[in-house]
Amino acid sequence: MTKYFTSEGLKKLKEELEYLEKVKRKEISERIKYAAAFGDLSENAAYDEAKDAQGFVEGRIIELKEIISQAKVISKKENGRVQIGSTVSVESNGEENNFKIVAPEEVDVISGKISYQSPLGSALMNRKKDDKIEVETPEGGKSYRVIKVE
């Protein structure tokens, strides 16, 4: 299944994969060797913790390789419509907010990056300046007006 990314988002995933493979694996390997040197592994908490960390890292490496193998970078078209990679300014109840539309793996709500699959993100997709949308939220329906699309 194809997964759509911004070029920035895919680059971050590739950097994370490289870090895990080249740096983190070695660190965990050293921790395992160090903990194993204490002897009896059946009651060695440091060894158990290092093996758990190794399992997590190896699982994340597999996950990242699969995501990257299915990734497709979206080239943003300058057509004035919201798409993956767009930064959108919206107004709701007199308050202005900016969001960048990204893939689910790139989401960072604190930085204003929302998924194109989220309720607001999907409602914004393919909209243009001055379009109005309604989004159902846990607090009820919310109205937005697109102010700017970059």
- Radius of gyration (CA) equals 21 Å
Query: Helicity, in percent?
Result: 40-55%
The tally of domains stands at 2
Structural classification: alpha/beta
**Strand portion:** 25-35%
Regions with little confidence, pLDDT below 50 for 5+ residues: none
Mean pLDDT: 92
Mind telling me the CATH superfamily name of the largest domain?
Transcription elongation factor, GreA/GreB, N-terminal domain
Any idea of the CATH topology of the largest domain?
Answer: Helix Hairpins
The outline comes out as elongated
What string gives the helices and strands in order? EHHEEEEHEE
Separation of the first and last Cα atoms: 28 Å
- Sheet with most strands: 5 strands, mixed
Please summarize what this structure is:
The chain is of the alpha/beta class. Helices cover 41% and strands 26% of the residues.
Chain-wise SSE layout:
Blueprint: E1 3-5, H1 7-36, H2 45-69, E2 71-73, E3 87-92, E4 95-102, E5 113-115, H3 119-124, E6 132-137, E7 140-149
Parallel strand pairs: 1-2, 4-5
Antiparallel strand pairs: 3-4, 3-7, 6-7
Helix pairs in contact: 1-2
